[in-house]
């Protein structure tokens, strides 16, 4: 791995930038993590401190959105990484190091209730944020549709060699009609156990650069129907009810909204999970990140759970459960 680091030309550029930024070359650099994008993260040890360096190649990633959203969320009291230095042209950021304990690695039967309530409290803080202080895209029908189209193009067609049936587009139209009815607030858009870091008695929020203004239930279903960890329905309902109670007290939901919220939650989850099935396959075929195929079964489980529950989704459910290539994934 060290040989790979040394021959990576961006590593050399990053080291030069760090040397100029810190006015020293007396630091150690190691790989921290990568994600489902072109971004990579490195940990730097300098004197008695550690930081995270984000490497976002400018031909693939625009870090300006990360910077503006980080500053906005910090102003609202959300625990996001402090930006200690930046080079937008080269695509480098020097950030607070939240450590290596992710929510996913920390959560257990014993810690789940406190951690999930902490995560929900942070989500509510983001949703209460004054939206006019930052320019965010709207999570509109076109964006939601384009995301769900990945299910047909990458999951059904590329991965399974199937032709997408008419019921898929009919279901997409139904999902879009349902999402329009929800109140719209700040949406992190990837709010799950791998993008939350446990920092003593609070959570650090990362990977928020794709935030939008969108449906109120999106981030909650991303958290509670996480593609990387499954909880019993009873626990999910318990945490969902905790969210609803607090959201009503904060005037994010009306009592009428509360009565519809479970339906919104289910159908919003279906939108996300159809998209994610496509994304996981695209990561495998296009980007060589085959480990995401291991997460297809749980994601498909959530899809089947939602399609089984609503009459309008019965044709899609029937297609899925009667297609051997799909069910072989379970």
Automatic annotation (TrEMBL):
<keyword id="KW-0067">ATP-binding</keyword>
<protein>
    <recommendedName>
        <fullName>Aminoglycoside phosphotransferase domain-containing protein</fullName>
    </recommendedName>
</protein>
<dbReference type="InterPro" id="IPR002575">
    <property type="entry name" value="Aminoglycoside_PTrfase"/>
</dbReference>
<keyword id="KW-0547">Nucleotide-binding</keyword>
<dbReference type="InterPro" id="IPR011009">
    <property type="entry name" value="Kinase-like_dom_sf"/>
</dbReference>
<dbReference type="GO" id="GO:0005524">
    <property type="term" value="F:ATP binding"/>
</dbReference>
<dbReference type="Pfam" id="PF01636">
    <property type="entry name" value="APH"/>
</dbReference>
<feature type="domain" description="Aminoglycoside phosphotransferase">
    <location>
        <begin position="30"/>
        <end position="243"/>
    </location>
</feature>
């Amino acid at each position: 791995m060290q040989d790979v680091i040394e021959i990576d030309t961006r590593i050399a550029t990053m080291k030069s930038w760090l040397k100029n930024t810190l006015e020293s070359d007396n630091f150690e650099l190691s790989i921290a993590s990568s994600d489902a994008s072109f971004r990579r993260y490195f940990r730097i040890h300098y004197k008695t401190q550690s930081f995270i360096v984000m490497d976002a190649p400018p031909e693939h990633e625009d870090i300006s959105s990360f910077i503006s959203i980080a500053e906005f969320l910090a102003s609202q009291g959300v625990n996001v990484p402090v930006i200690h230095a930046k080079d937008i042209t080269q695509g480098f950021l020097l950030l607070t190091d939240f450590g290596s304990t992710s929510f996913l690695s920390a959560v257990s039967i014993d810690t789940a209730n406190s951690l999930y309530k902490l995560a929900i409290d942070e989500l509510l803080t983001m949703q209460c944020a004054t939206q006019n202080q930052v320019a965010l895209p709207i999570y509109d029908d076109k964006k939601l549709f384009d995301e769900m189209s990945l299910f047909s193009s990458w999951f059904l067609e590329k991965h399974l060699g199937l032709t997408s049936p008419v019921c898929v587009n009919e279901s997409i139209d139904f999902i879009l009609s349902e999402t329009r009815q929800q109140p719209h607030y700040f949406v992190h858009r990837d709010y799950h156990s791998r993008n939350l870091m446990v920092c003593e008695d609070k959570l650090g929020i990362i990977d928020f650069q794709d935030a939008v203004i969108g449906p109120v239930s999106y981030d909650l279903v991303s958290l509670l129907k996480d593609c990387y960890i499954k909880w019993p329905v009873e626990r999910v309902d318990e945490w969902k009810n905790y969210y609803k109670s607090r959201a009503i007290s904060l005037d994010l939901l009306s009592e009428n909204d509360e009565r519809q919220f479970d339906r919104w939650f289910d159908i919003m989850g279906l939108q996300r999970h159809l998209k994610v099935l496509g994304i996981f396959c695209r990561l495998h075929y296009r980007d060589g990140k085959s480990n995401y195929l291991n997460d297809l079964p749980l994601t498909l489980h959530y899809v089947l759970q939602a399609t089984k529950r609503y009459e309008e989704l019965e044709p899609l459910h029937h297609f899925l459960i009667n297609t051997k290539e799909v069910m072989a994934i379970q």
